[in-house]
Amino acid sequence: MTFREITTNGVPGLFDVRTSVRENTYTREDLYRDGITEKTVAEMISTTHCGWLCEVNSKIVGFAMANGRTGEFSVIAVFPEYEMRGIGSKLLLLAEDWLRSIGWEEIWLWTSLDTNLKAYAFYRNRGWTDAEIRTNQRIMKKRIGK
Question: Which of 49, 68, 74, 104 has its CA 20 to 30 A from that of 42?
Answer without folding.
Answer: 104
